[in-house]
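Dear Dr. H.,

I hope your travels went smoothly. While you were away I took the liberty of generating a structure for the chain from your last submission, since the lab meeting agenda had it listed for discussion. I wanted you to have the full record in hand beforehand rather than looking at slides cold. The sequence, exactly as received, is reproduced here:
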Amino acid sequence: MQVKYIEKQKVLFEWHQHDCFELILTIGAQGRGFIGSTIHAFADIDLALIAPGVPHTWDSQPPYDSAELVVVILWPKTLLACAIAELADLQSWLDSIASGLVFSRDTAEQVREQCLALNTASPLNRLTLLCEILAELRVRPAKGIRLDHSRNSERLARVQTWIASRVDTPPSLAQCAAHINVSTATLKRWFAHELGCSFSQYCAQLRCQRAQHLLATERRPIGVVAQQCGFTSAAYFSQFFKAHTGMTPGAYRRQFSWRKR
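The corresponding predicted structure, in token form, is as follows:
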């Protein structure tokens, strides 16, 4: 279990994902949270729970270039898997989360002090506090976020991580199959059944997320962004980007123009 306690620092727009649960409490900021393909607005205080393997990022908006405080709690996806009934029930609830949950302002305020207490708690007390927080969140209403796919296979997760590290030049289906020692037919079936999309669609999703990050955080020409995301044609990149986000690369970038002043 890991706790990050970040005071008065910029809210960085950077897509990332990891193989553990993340509970993130943001205080004193205003902006948008991106979880998979879902966007939610927040102000003053925000609390979200993100399932393993789900790409996500946060972005502040003027005049809030930084947050007063961000508490990030990370724990292994099977941390509470044991024979203790109460913990097993919490683990079962966590496993049922398709992608993520966004909680109300009232709920965030309800668990605020417990989240803050994690910073100075001993390792054992941290685990106790986490269980108390999750027990409270379990009975609270929340907005469920669901991706178009799930992440049920450990071997498929290895492929996802490998593809994410090579977004500019994604490996082929055959290369990915060889990477985890399965047939291309098996891997193709996993993408269809477990992720709900084709191999090419999944690669396209990652390339789009990479493009979103570059457009939001850097001044590089759109043609250069296209190349860094594996597109040889800026025109095709613009068409691809609009099909996935509903806006052109230029229009998307203008939303974040204040960041680059």
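Two observations you may find useful: The radius of gyration is 19 Å. The chain has a mean pLDDT of 84.

With kind regards,
E. W.
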